[in-house]
Every structure is written in C-alpha cells, then in structure tokens.
Design goal:
alpha+beta, Nucleoside Triphosphate Pyrophosphohydrolase, N-utilizing Substance Protein B Homolog, Chain A, 42% helix, 2 domains, 304 residues, elongated
C-alpha cells in the first residue's frame, strides 16, 4: 500500500531527528506533526505514523537489545543513524505490531526498502541480514502458531548447510509440594530451555551437562532420559545460515540458585512451577518437551 510506505518514511524521518538530537526525554508527537505537514499533507493514515513512531520509542530498550544480540560486531552507536532507526521500525513491526495487519515478511521487506531509499549503498543488505537473522532465530513469529516445530526458510537447500550439534535440557528440582522447571529468558522475549554447543565428537549426555553447568552455574546434576530433538535455522554473521540440531535431556538438580552466565542472547533465569507455564511466552516446539518432562517427573514422584 503506497500510503503505508509513505507513512513509514515519515516515521523514519521523525525517529531519525528524535535520535539525532537525543530527545529520549521528549515526546515525538511534535516532530511527527511537523513532518506530516511538510512532507505528506493530506495523508489519510496519520494514525499509522503516530502508532509506529510511538511504538518504536515505547519498546526501544528491548528493540535495541535485540539489535545488539543479532549484530554483535556492530555496537549500536556505531550503526549508521538511518540504519539504526530502520532496524527499530522493522523490529517493532516484526515483533510487536498486529501480524494480521503487517505480516512478518511485509515488515522486513518494507524495512529493506526504507534502508535502500534513505541509507547507504550497503544499508539494504545490512538491514536484510539483521532482520533475517532475527526472523529465523525466533521461528517466523505468528506463522502457524500451533506447529510444534519452528519454520525454516523454504528456499534453502537444508542438506547443503553446515550443521551444529547442541545439547539442551529440561532442568528440574523437587519441591516440598511438587517440582519446578529452570527456564532462561532470551533477547527475543521468550522463556526457553538451557542449551549449548557441543565439542566435535563429544558425548551428548556429558556435553549437555557441561553446557548446562556453564550456562546456569549448576554443579550437582543427574541426567535422565532423552526427551526429544529439534532443528532450526540460525544465521552466523560470518558463515551465514546454519542448521542447529538440539537433543534435549531431562536433568535433575537439588540446587535452588541459578547463576546465569554472561553470554549473548540471555538476560534472566528462573524457576517455574508447571501451572505457571501457561502464562509464559514459550516457543511452540519447547512446550511439548516440558509436557513430556512433566509426565515423567509426575510418575517418578508418585513412585517414591
């Protein structure tokens, strides 16, 4: 829709000015109103412009954190001002906007067009790379929400991609009146399971315990049965698309304290009872693993 593209352009110009003058403590409305009068008089979609600009600012802290995780070689302040705000707009629409109104691929394509129009010769490629990485990492948000597997890009020859082996775990501990799961919170706003890369040729079980110990700071752990596997596409800044194959195990610990390692992509760890999981934002392919673990744990506790 031509009006929407113009609206995004006005939002970008306004956010550029707001960011350039470091007006973090000032409302953006006056800037948007002036730009609408000057560059788009008579625009019928003013509400969309205001909603986009205000939405970016309202979620700026979370959006900027995600940009930093997805483009670790480019500190936020070193990203060109135009590219930085194009990414903010694209991420806001990708993660927080109404997906029925703005499908994820529309959000990405519109951001790329803004970058090509207002940025440098390399802006479109840079924005495409960062947003594409995030899109694949979170499994195409909103698409087939009932699916148990994250979606993979259909235009990739999966067999030709390099594959990485990871070990993950549903970590749990006994309580006086039940049990709790240990979950970690990622930069995309999801609670998920602890996992990590294994060394080449490393035993799956031992490698998984090593990574869980590194990530959660746990020392006393007992590994149980394998719960399942999943595979998804991630994007490495240097190597491009990569298949990540994860094998998940059930792991019990008596330890209560979680000490989250300082690593990219995670910002919190916590214990949750099973009944609390329904209210958490959790990847669709992780929920079946938690349910399977819950069944095994319930049987174990009942037999003790």
């Amino acid at each position: 829709m031509a009006n929407r593209h113009l609206s995004r352009s006005i939002a970008l110009q306004s956010l550029f000015e707001w960011d350039f003058y470091d007006r973090a403590d000032r409302p953006i409305r006056a800037i948007v109103e002036r730009n609408l009068r000057e560059f788009a008089p008579g625009l019928e979609d003013n509400a969309f412009v205001f909603g986009l600009a205000n939405g970016v600012i309202a979620h700026q802290k979370q959006i900027d954190t995600i940009i930093e995780k997805a483009a670790p070689e480019w500190p936020l302040k070193q990203i060109a001002l135009t590219d930085r705000n194009v990414l903010r707009i694209g991420l806001y629409e990708l993660l927080f906007a109404n997906r029925d109104e703005v499908p994820p691929k529309v959000a990405i394509n519109e951001a790329i067009e803004l970058a090509k129009t207002f940025g440098s010769d390399t802006s479109g490629k840079f924005v495409n790379g960062v947003l594409g990485t995030i899109y694949r990492e979170i499994g195409e948000p909103g698409k087939d929400d009932g699916s148990k597997k994250r979606r993979m890009p259909l235009d990739l020859d999966l067999e030709s991609l390099p594959r990485e082996e990871l070990g993950g775990a549903v970590v749990w501990r006994r309580l006086a009146d039940g049990y709790a799961f240990a979950l970690v919170h990622d930069a995309f706003g999801y609670w998920t399971l602890s996992k990590g890369h294994l060394h080449e040729g490393e035993d799956l079980g031992k490698g998984t315990l090593r990574k869980i110990a590194e990530e959660l700071g746990l020392e006393q752990m007992t590994i149980g049965e394998a719960l399942g596997e999943n595979e998804y596409i991630a994007s490495d800044p240097k190597r491009g698309p990569i298949r990540r194959h994860v094998t998940y195990f059930l792991v019990e610990t008596p330890e209560e304290t979680l000490r989250l390692a300082e690593k990219g992509g995670l910002d919190e760890a916590g214990w949750f009872r099973r009944k609390a999981l329904a209210d958490l934002r959790i990847y669709d392919d992780i929920r079946p693993l938690l349910e399977k673990a819950a069944g095994i744990i319930t049987e174990q506790l009942a037999s003790n």
